[in-house]
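#struct-help
A.M.: can someone run this one for me? Single chain, 160 residues.
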Amino acid sequence: MESLYTWLEALSISTFIRESNSLWAFPMFLFAHTLGMSIVAGGSGLIDLALLGFWPKGMPVKPLERLYPLMWLGFWINLITGSTLLVADASTRLTNPDFYVKMVCVVIGTTVLFVMRKRVFGHPELDRAPVPSHAKMLAWVSLACWFGAILTGRLLAYTS
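D.P.: on it. Structure tokens below:
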């Protein structure tokens, strides 16, 4: 595994991110990663809180489905910037358990996004009946996953 880490860290993009003093290097990638996470976790959090009842009475939840393309944009920004930040410091990140906890949270959170769009927003009675208990359960899981992803992502900066 050590040779894989060495190879990843020797890539020109890795060296640029890690060693350049340019604002276009580490600071910009970290900013973009933070921005992407705020879009995906923030959009998801808004939907989750609406499904949990933190939404004005009588106001439909269905229009929040329009946030999905924006959340997917945030996800792709995170995938690209996160992968780049990862290879720049592979030997540290890939040996840290916090990284794997973060990835589990992201995978589950992303899966919940898919399931929620299909099962909750695809339900014809979404705004005509009380929010089903399975939708509320998905919302709690989603909140926990994105909170966990953000928390462990920040811990990576301090435990590596």
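A.M.: thanks! Residues 2-159 form one domain.
D.P.: also worth noting: The chain has seven helices and no strands.
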